[in-house]
Queue: 3 jobs
Job 1
Amino acid sequence: MSSGEFIQRVRETLRDRRMSVRSVARELNYDHAYLSRILSGKQDPSMQLVAGLDEFLQADGELLELAIQAEEPNRSVEDAEPSSAAHRILRLNNAQGADFVQAIRDTSRRLIVLDNELSGVSIAEPAGRAFKVVHRRLGVGDYDQRYERDIQSAASELAEVAGWALWDAENEEAAHRLNHEALFLAKLSGDRSTELLTLQNMAMQSEWRGRPQEALSIARSVLNSRRLHPRVEAMFRIREAKGLVGTGRLPEATESLRRARSLVEDGSHVGAPEWTWWVTPGEIDRQWGHMLQIAGQVEDAIEYLQRSIQTARDVTTGYSSERVARLADCLLDVGAWRDAEDVAASLITSTPGISSGRTIRMIDNVAHRRSTLPDAPSSLRDTLDHLGDTLNEDPFTL
């Protein structure tokens, strides 16, 4: 990308508004040296950075348009052909420079769309295989060296996606490897944004592996070391809260979640990394409900979990049914049979479209509670039986 006009416009805007490169990089969660290289013309900007600058500087799409126009002269005839899955995979294997960067980022975005919009399809294997292709090419230097940092940055994003997907599929060993690759590549390229997201994932996975102090240490290492965008801080306050409750410190955990809620509901979204889209009031309610469930305050947890599944408070993700399974579990704990039956019935409908290994296991645990509920009405036990049968169905049966 020859981005002279884009660079000039950004530099003029910063000068007119008396904003430093360091302050802008801090607001966008990028390394200031990386942004300096972009604005001095030594490195091409990623489209993620361009979009972040456009929103933060309130350019109304002008910076995005300049960046896209600058990229047009460098497109080959192949690039101009209609996009297809086979065409994109070919680029991932054979592209060398800016096209390699774009191919990696396109792969990451398609995987994220599949994970959230077609939740019955696991992205773990294709994500892992895609990163393996990129990892091999990075190792042997099979790319245009002028684009090395951009390629490393794009690869770190793909490794983060693969690490998350593998963890969601309950392949924890592979997820652990991919997380460390993502963190390593993010640090090499100066991609602070992906570094932060990967650290958040690592804290979350430590919590799920029963290592709450480790999760707390990761969260606080970020919270204590840098100034964060409100939505990013909210993510790490959530991780801090879960680490605290896991180590028996519920009052402190509650305070951390109060802070997270305030940051999400009152803070500005301008300049937030695009990967913070899932941090919503509904997500805060889900995490609060889980925290109370961990602490044994099940009746209080129900209120938050019920609120978390209200459509207006949340966005759809590949793991959205996790909170529903957690709610069913809590309702069974307190003997709220009618409500538990209704929630279990809703899971029967949603289960065929779920690929999240974690969520499936949670639903399976709910279904297997039938044998531990001798006082439950027969209609509820029948519903739990039906839920178990649904989990065991051939996913390709029409």
Job 2
Amino acid sequence: MHVVERFLRYVSYDTQSSEESSTVPTTEKQKVLGAALAQELSELGLHGAKMDEYGYVYGWLPATVGCEGVPCLGLIAHMDTSPSAPGADIHPKVVHYEGGDIPLSDRVVMRASEFASLSKYVGQDLIVTDGTTLLGADDKAGVAEIFTAVEYLAAHPEIPHGRIAVAITPDEEVGSGADHFDVEGFGAAAAYTVDGGELGELEYENFNAASAKVTVRGFNIHPGSAKDKMRNACLMALEFVNMLPPAETPAHTEGYEGFYHLGHMEGDETEARLEFIIRDHDRARFEERKERMNLIAAYLNGKYGPTTVQVELKDSYYNMKAQIEPHMYLIHRARAAFAKVGVEAQEVPIRGGTDGARLSYMGLPCPNLSTGGANFHGVMEYIPVQSMEKMVQVLVELVTEQK
């Protein structure tokens, strides 16, 4: 099956994960696709194909004759899509891009002036949305590319390779994709997640990440008699926000620059709540960012009273670089695979996280590879057909044992 046909079939499934849910997986609908993927792996000839109770899909392709002693290599992607944009009833379409703007619908236009990366794909075929939903290339493109690569290898036993383990995870988009990953059962010595952006991306550095929940407690009284008595929680919450560096937000940072991101706020005069994410590639600066939150709270508690501001910090994941550096052969191997099919690898820091970061700290070194897509998590998401085809070739080269 062609990688595009596979991808278009996968995006017809609504698999959005949920940040509010406490179930595993966070949405039962992910298991619908998971069951179909497990069945497909079995039909492709993979051994041990199954979906477990948590919604994780596993299977493995045996080593070819003479390669039985080669360490097992894993390929991993995630089936869920982001809750940041509508993800049900997706209507993808393939457009041959000749430059300029792309009308997604009568009302929504992807403008070349706003998305400079489009200029690289003139003359190619782009899979886009209808402007009402995300596309789901993050990460169903990764799933489709892995499955198409193993299908090709299963049909060509003359291509030498060691055992190849495949895993498709739920809930990556809400940060819990590695929570129940069976590293020991997976059986790989190392792995790659296929969950990156544009063709050629090779990533083994990511943010250190934490969440911060700030609760501000005030005292309300009728505004007509509030002088010297009211302590407005909303205003104190704004004071907290304004004490953070104004230029250290996602809208003002790039590359290795970290940030504080206020993602949610609500409240009234009596109580206000702020929800932040904190990110930095450098571990020392990451720890300093968390400490700044505590120092601001301490200052405001000294000003307004000892129980006014409470900060709850929770680490999410850490920079995988420290775990990958002892296994740099994985990066050299990926560079070579890209080069073999005529793609120059671009080593870039991930301004986010990936299952691979947490898996690397769970004992499975796991850098990240491109899928070929762009503009993830929104209605302007797209992926070039030619990039998906190239990634299938990259994966085949990646697992091929050189003799």
Job 3
Amino acid sequence: MVGTRALRVRSLLCAALLGMAMPVALPVAAAQSTAPAAAIPRVNLSHLDHLYAETMIGGERVGVVHIYSEAPDFRFAIEPREGFTCVDDVARAIVLLAAAPRPDARRLHRIDMLTRFVLRMQADNGYFHNFLWGDGRINREYRTSLAELNWWSLRALWGLEAALPHLPAATAARARTAADRLVMNLKRDLPTGANATTKVANIIVPTWLPLESGADAGSTALLGLLPHYRRTNDAATRALIERIGEGMLVMQAGDAQRFPHGAHLSWRNQWHAWGNAQAYALLRAGKLLDRRDFIASALREVDHFYPYLLRTGMRASFTLENMGDGFAARDAERFPQIAYGISPMILAATEAYRQTGQPRYRATAERLATWFTGANDAGRAIYDPASGRVLDGINGKGTVNPNSGAESTIEGLFALTALHGTPLP
């Protein structure tokens, strides 16, 4: 099989949550250890360089990153229903490369070429197709590549806005137009003017977020909307950011004493580690917009849920049920554990440290980072600083997925970049 990837559509997520139930204890959160973590490994882009390539779309030369890279020789693979590269991972690569304070000529060239790929994937409706076939055709039919309000379109916005300060004039003009058009779609298509909620397992969830209650997808939306607002100072964009953030607040459950200890649910009554960047996005939105409630909500998760995971072991997913006197976890899964599940927590903890200066947040980030260096259920280093490879995850106790695809590699490098003191754009 090709390397593990985070699930992109809700039907696949629901199927993954139908496995055997695993009871989750509901302990009182204990004080977090502040013991120093091991030295943070250096950021090595060598494997990302290996994944990078250039190709043609519609007569234009563009940059891509290969999605799958399979052990032992890390040759490339293609998913037969999807393709060999995608907007999701190319936009990630743009964000990573744009994080450098002063990108060198090589990085600037790649930011430009990768941005050209994203621009070529925008459909006539303003949203983005996700996957490209090996012969240069855009995959317009498969469900994870439809041009719609979904993860890949939202991540395209983050990538385009991150790229803008580093682009030559012609590409920058195209990127601004594409991003502005997409934001117009979001203002039109997200029902943020409504105040509707629904109940799932006796838990109140909002229905004005992406994918109705997608707080996880909403976090990706915020990461693109925030730089768009800084660039445009558009009042409607600010209102959209605030409304998405307010929906995320509704999705928070538990506190210091009660499970799930301030975690923000991902979608409906489900929590999954992959892409759960709500705390990180709320911290950034709270700082930019002076929304102290956003910051307080994010810090509640960092203060209580992350130490709970560090104390009891990482989780992949669970569903939550409100029992009246507390919450219970159902359908809990410990595996797979992937970089895309760890990096959002490290990003949130480093951002909390950046904003507050409190050493406990730096300590939390460093302890989370030991998952990459071997303090995990596999007992194996997931990141190799010599090659820059990040393994595609932990499949079970003592076992890893030895492949090293784009998502895992870039998400791992996101975390390390932040730990070395460089914020993402």
